[in-house]
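Morning run. Coffee first, then this:
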Amino acid sequence: MDISALLTSAGINIAICAVLLSLYSILRKQPSNACVYFPRRLLSEPVKHNDPFCLERFVPSASWIMRAWQATDEEILAVGGVDAVVFMRIVVFSLRVFTIAALICIFLVLPMNYYGQNMQHKKFHAESLEIFTIGNVREGSKWLWTHCLALYVITGSACILLYFEYKSITKMRLAHITGSPPNPSHFTVLVRGIPWSPDHSYSTAVENFFSTFYPASYLSHQMVYRTGTVDKLMEDAERMYRMLKSIEPHCKEIPLPCCLCGGTTHSFKMLKNESESVKSKTSIDGLHPIHREKERPAAFVFFRTRYAAVIAAEVLQSHNPMLWVTQLAPEPHDVYWSNLSIPYKQVWLRKIATLLGSVVFMFLFLIPVTFVQGLTQLDQLSHTFPFLQGILKQKYMKQLVTGYLPSVILILFLYAVPPTMMLFSAMEGNVSRSERKKSACIKVLYFTIWNVFFVNVLSGSVISQLSVFSSVRDIPVELAKAVPTQATFFTTYVLSSGWASLSCEVMQPFPLFCNAFSKFILRVQEEPKNCALNFPHHTEIPRLLLFGLLGFTCSVLAPLILPFMLVYFFLAFLVYRNQILNVYVSKYESGGRFWPIVHNTTIFSLLLTQVIALGVFGMKKSPVASGFTIPLILLTLLFNEYCRHRFSPVFKSSPVQVLIEMDRQDEQWGRLEAIYDQLRTAYRQYPSVPQDFSVSGSTSHHVESSQDPESLKSGGQLVKFNG
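And here it is:
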């Protein structure tokens, strides 16, 4: 690929970004799109639909960019919680480290690559991109020390920034634990693997066990029940009820013929008195299965102090590790109820099965990746498909096929990866939504690094790809040969998957289409009450980390990728801030537990970069550069080991010192009884219906429940459909 093909790809993506961002600045001003671009605000602020026509609403503007730029970390924390701040710290960290890398590599390394051999250079637009890589430096060149120096500067800067970010986020996590209101999850332990006995129920077994071994700290417990068909129907009826409560009370009959049967359609009619309504039998006692056979071998056990809950969650409860398995319970809104009914003895089998499924899916993905790489090799493509020879001889078609089409096709295939990995994560038995999303995030990260980086670098037949790893000693050499040649593909991938995907993220095409279909086809004028989405960490964090890996590995070898990388991270800074402030809602909080994934992946990227550089220096016969790279690898490993011991334990469990101090404060301030009352209703497997289920009125009633927060909304009145 030459410079003109790269500029063609850049021009196409710049045009797409400019059009989509301009269109977004117009669409976000339309009142009918408030549920698409401001769903977070809809939960707390009323929306007016009688805005007068104004020409300014149809003129593109950059007001959203200024608002996102001026937002502070305190605003992000108040709106999105610790997880949102941690996500933005990933973007800020990437911006800082790649700014340093771009400065040293563009002004120091790139000229050395360009003038690495005595040759007659072509015009700039006709130059091959390989001229700008380390592959253009001749063997035994005395200027390879500049590449080694750049590698030291990039590694040192990344490690220093990583240390301060890890330290800051650790303090933020501790502040979140101590500064937030009393959290029921701090007093609650999830118990699984309860042994079955023919003499008594699971509930009696739990009470007897914890009353015997934790008599001073045990408070009470709540069993987990099997969800049957009737229970699911009651759940659906509750969701429908909450949706219908938002209907206006002054609906009138519409004498229009029905489009299906020709009869008269009827509107919703309010039930004004209790005699017209169905008697409420949906109290918490009625909703919960009371039969013994519906109890599952899992329960939430409540303790009097946080310290007692932590001790019970950490120690081994039985001589059989598969029985009485304990762990700290997730937050009420974070509980993934459907997985609590899974017997604990099946969990390890499910994890193995999902791991094997992920590996099989990863290798099946070699087929589209190999096809994509075939598009970058025009000679092989023309030989395989002779009828394309005439088309591929055209200059602009050649630039389109080699510079834009491969990355776009790969991106389209990659859209199937996050839903598949989320399904695998749900099947493996995670008991909380945050754990499920974290597991999916790791799977997507491994998948994208393998298929986007390694498979593309070691492109060819599947057999040749596997044979590369037959000898560990050959890995640095093979990577050193392949990475500089594939740097051009990675550059176009950053353009297509980075710039264009951010424009699609801010546009929200699927919610926009659904909203347009609802408003203009179905003629639904009411704003939906459950349109807010949770932040997709499992898709966005792997994308950021993949681009970080591409930036590190190509920074010294092919520094031409760095300017495009900086543009991506700067655009990501604006887009994600805007989405956090206006679109996404935090339905549960993990306290920044995604950051260790970021740290470990960054360390892996640095080590991979150093190993590849070591192989390149060996190929280029530069013993000085190779000798200085080996200590750098050891220093990076030592730094990672220090951070693992210094910061990582805080993200796995809460410090006992902090929890005991919080228990003492609650006792001094007399808040324990209120906390105990909250625990009794915190973990409800089935949604609780308000007592005035059948009474009309305009008063909203907030009901606490831990069942699927998407379906829990405060409502107005009960309505009935007259048909």
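Confidence is low (pLDDT under 50) at residues 247-254, 263-290, 460-470, 689-723. Good start to the day.
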